């Protein structure tokens, strides 16, 4: 059975920062998807379900990014040069 790993997330000028007792040190990423992938890779071979619990600052940043309409890397219509 796959375990759930609950990660507390905040946003700083460095990006999204996730921390949990199961992690040796906080994990930093520029996106929530990147944060989830990094944490999943650190927890191998267990591969838990990563549940991100965003604080107010992280929620505001996530919403701000959604509202700006910036294309995400690899999204359709974005050129790769």
Radius of gyration: 14 Å
Element-level helix/strand string: EEEHEH
Count of alpha/pi helices: 2
Shape: elongated
Number of domains: 1
Instruction: Please tell me the overall pLDDT.
Output: 85
The count of strands amounts to 4
Major beta sheet, strand line-up: 3-2-1-4
Strand content: 25-35%
For the sheet with most strands, the description reads: 4 strands, mixed
Uncertain ranges: none
- State the separation between the terminal residues, measured CA to CA: 43 Å
Structural class: alpha+beta
Bin the helical content.
Answer: 25-40%
Give a written overview of the molecule.
By secondary structure, the chain is of the alpha+beta class. It has one domain (4-68). Helices cover 30% and strands 28% of the residues. The chain is built from 2 helices and 4 strands. Strands 3-2-1-4 form a 4-stranded mixed sheet. A hairpin with a 7-residue loop joins strand 2 (15-19) and strand 3. It is elongated. The chain starts with a strand and ends in a 13-residue tail after the last helix. The mean pLDDT is 85.
């Amino acid at each position: 059975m796959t375990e759930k790993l609950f990660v507390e997330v905040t946003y700083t000028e460095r990006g999204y920062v996730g921390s949990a007792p199961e992690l040796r040190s906080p994990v930093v990423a520029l996106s929530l998807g990147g944060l989830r992938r990094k944490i999943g890779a650190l927890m191998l071979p267990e591969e838990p379900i990563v549940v991100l619990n965003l604080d107010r600052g992280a929620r505001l940043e996530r919403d701000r990014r959604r509202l700006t309409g910036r294309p995400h890397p690899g999204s359709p219509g974005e050129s790769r040069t």
